[in-house]
Amino acid sequence: MAQMDLELKKAFTEMQINKLETTKKISMIDMKCDMVKTGKQKYSLTEKSTSNLTDDTRVYMSVGRMFLLTDLDSMRNELKAKQDKCDKAIELLEKKKEFLQKSLKDQEDGLRELVQQRKEADVLAK
């Protein structure tokens, strides 16, 4: 009986540690996702604000610590590419988050199953 209790205690302790680590990872993923969404929104707003400019308007793109003169079409293409990159990053982060949530749920289910087996074994032993 004491052996069963030690196994359950060990399983609960491992699950608590794993749950804390997983929730930290999930919160980090949420923060990264928010940052990427903010960047995407910035690119979208920039694209909207340049949509009413004429093609002969001089536009500058920031590259590092300098600005380069570029044409409007290439700047718009660059903004679209950055938005697509943000979409892919958001999708990847969401998949990671779903995986972590699923693995945590699977571990909780496994622990419930272990507790249920212990209860059934105790009932049969009596």
Topology:
Elements: H1 2-50, E1 59-63, E2 66-70, H2 72-125
Antiparallel strand pairs: 1-2
Helix pairs in contact: 1-2
Written overview of the protein:
By secondary structure, the protein is mostly helical. Helices cover 82% and strands 8% of the residues. The protein contains 2 helices and 2 strands. It has helices at residues 2-50, 72-125, and strands at 59-63, 66-70. It has a two-stranded antiparallel ribbon with strand order 1-2. Helix 1 (2-50) packs antiparallel against helix 2. The chain is rod-shaped and about 90 Å long.
| Main beta sheet | 2 strands, antiparallel
Order of helices and strands: HEEH
Tally of DSSP β-strands: 2
Round the Cα radius of gyration to an integer and report it: 26 Å
N-end to C-end Cα span: 12 Å
Anisotropy-based shape: rod-shaped
The unreliable regions are none
The neighbouring-strand order within the major sheet is 1-2
- Tell me, rounded to a whole number, the average pLDDT: 89
Question: In CATH terms, what is the fold-level topology of the domain at 41-118?
Answer: Helix Hairpins
| Count of alpha and pi helical runs | 2
- Helix vs. strand class: mainly alpha
Helix fraction by DSSP (H/I, runs of at least 4): over 70%
CATH structural architecture of the domain at 41-118? Orthogonal Bundle
Strand percent estimate: 5-15%
What attributes characterize this protein structure?
single chain; 126 residues; mainly alpha; Helix Hairpins; two-stranded antiparallel sheet; 2 helices; 2 strands
